[in-house]
Amino acid sequence: xxHAVRHDAMRAGNLAVxxxxxxxxxxxxxxxxxxxxxxxxxxxxxxxxxxIDAGMAVESGTVGDGExxxxxxxxxxxxxxxxALGLEINVDYLAACVVDLSRTVRLLRAQAVDNRAASPxxxxxxxxxxxxxxxxxxAGLGLSVxxxxxxxxxxxxxxxxxxxRAPNLGWRDVAVAGALGLPxxxxxxxxxxxxxLGELWFGSGAALGDFLHxxxxxGIGAGLVVDGALFxxxxxxxxxxGHVVVAPDGPECRCGGSxxxxxxxxxxxxxxxxxxxxxxxxxxxAGDRDALAACGRAGTALGVALSSAVNxxxxxxxxxxxxxxxxxxxxxxxxxxxxxxxxxQMRARVPAVVVSQVGADAAALGAAGQVLQRIIADPGAYxxxxxx
Amino acid sequence: xxHAVRHDAMRAGNLAVxxxxxxxxxxxxxxxxxxxxxxxxxxxxxxxxxxIDAGMAVESGTVGDGExxxxxxxxxxxxxxxxALGLEINVDYLAACVVDLSRTVRLLRAQAVDNRAASPxxxxxxxxxxxxxxxxxxAGLGLSVxxxxxxxxxxxxxxxxxxxRAPNLGWRDVAVAGALGLPxxxxxxxxxxxxxLGELWFGSGAALGDFLHxxxxxGIGAGLVVDGALFxxxxxxxxxxGHVVVAPDGPECRCGGSxxxxxxxxxxxxxxxxxxxxxxxxxxxAGDRDALAACGRAGTALGVALSSAVNxxxxxxxxxxxxxxxxxxxxxxxxxxxxxxxxxQMRARVPAVVVSQVGADAAALGAAGQVLQRIIADPGAYxxxxxx
Lengths: 388, 388
Fold this sequence. Notes:
Two copies of one chain form a homodimer.
Chain A: H1 2-25, E1 28-29, H2 30-37, H3 41-53, E2 57-64, E3 71-77, E4 82-89, E5 93-100, E6 105-112, H4 120-140, E7 144-152, E8 156-157, E9 162-166, E10 171-175, H5 176-180, E11 186-190, H6 191-202, E12 211-216, E13 220-226, E14 229-231, H7 262-265, H8 267-270, H9 277-285, H10 289-313, E15 317-322, H11 328-343, E16 352-355, H12 362-377, H13 379-384
Parallel strand pairs in A: 4-7, 7-11, 12-15, 15-16
Antiparallel strand pairs in A: 1-3, 2-3, 4-5, 5-6, 8-9, 9-10, 12-13, 13-14
Helix pairs in contact in A: 1-3, 2-3, 6-12, 10-11
Family (chains A, B): Belongs to the ROK (NagC/XylR) family.
Protein name (chains A, B): ROK family protein
Pfam family, one (chains A, B): ROK
């Protein structure tokens, strides 16, 4: 019994080592895999057979096998069967995507909808419908969706699957994952954290070094990526940039504080009631003075909050995403000016401010990507799961 | 040749495994060490003999050897030979300490001196004299001091041993480690980072969870400890709490910004020119209105900056050290009130604010402790060092 358990644990560990090597280093022959992992060729061949059976790997063409240079049959991650579901509830939209194991985005759906006007129950029913239709499409493509993560605009208690408080939605302790009732394991995570991971896996990624990704929405959140992994803080609540103080005596914020960054640079501070982002961008392009002044103020406030963030977190790069991506030409200048003024003398280098390469879908993509990371880190658990 | 190198590397790795087990788990028999490390008893016995020869371990009494319960000879870390030097240059004092491998503080010397009035060269000459006298005393105690670290009040470039800029000292790119010219390897590190490590190893430690340690001096720095290790940021500049924005239009700061926390809660903002900290504490105890008002303002400003820090970093606990330790009864109340007001609605729990258990020597102790960590992580390098 003990022997069998040990054997299973060892096999699961070795599956993860082989799948991880294929993920990081692309197509490899079995011989190159053996060399890269330190496992015997016999063991590698058995594990690769298991991964091919499970639809997680596939033989494709030939490559040189490293040391000897003889061409061999290449094995790579397969995207044809295993996939992950990414979902997002934000203040003014819902999103769902399916990404396969090779990190190809197979399906992506978004709905513009004012979730503040609806009850949590109604929002969850709507998201369930969106997710169910996306899962049906995925099944039609022959994909087996192993799990999902929901991105939520507020601090999340990952142990319970609850969002503790989403002040911009007016939600408190809503049990999102359970209420969705989807036929697969579903977790929840803060949307700003997931958007940062979306940028890491589907945007500029490793070129950014350690980066702070800013998600501008109705609320403003941020996610810090250090050495390719998310910095979460002790309770998963790190990166709440929207409630960093710009001016302590400033306007009251829905969080209970005052003068928070959100009140100067959140979507509600920039858009007149009823105006769409595209209309604001059109006004900015036309040189509308009010619009330019509002973006200038937002950029300066962003620079103040980011200078506090850089003093505390010391990233290489700042990535502006969400609404700050379309507004980048107008907010990044004042933000950078403020950063240089406040940080230039103390630091050898002030972090560069760059625009997100992913855009509005970053959090949903990051959610699906995180499910894939879990599968790649423990493919044994996936192979043993009842739905497989 | 390759074989010999591999053998040395393996031995060095195994020495670190055995020494690490003794460090974390206290006195152990050779049999218990073998069980804890997975090494054979023969290998453990050889490694323990090497560590005893090097004065890094010692036999002391008997303990049960774990599974079998038979009493055996216990081996533990020895403090009788190997030690580390901790140094600190701050704005108004110098400090030096020697801590032995068992983390007992053997020597601790501080000098109150206004380093702003002196040139960097003069300050380094003074610190060299202090360090030399402490090293002579350590030699008299039979201690072999393996290395040292200098704590500096500003962002440090660890690759060069330079302090990039210490605005409160008026220093720029001073090559401290090289200029000291001590007969042992010396590195530099930011004092706020080291003070946090001092609290971890010589203060409340693991009971704090993930914590932000605030060093109040002329400047204000902070160090974040996550999972028992320092969070440094991409360039080692994380934790610059003193330049987090309290009010962007506030008084100008020596960093080039304005309204930074230091201008409201640093020592210069609290003490009238020429007054000592003890005189301020006496006035506070006597109920002096001006002193109470100044500490109230400082505590509130600290609460504003810390609320931004908690939003970004999400620690379990905030530790107030440096000048905030003697001022704790007067600054912690307003700071906590501000934290609860700004964070209470968004978080299930607002971090507790506690007083440092180490005090003014935290950075020098943390410096010595960090040298010890390096030795414990790689005792082979120490054993092979020419001075040994």
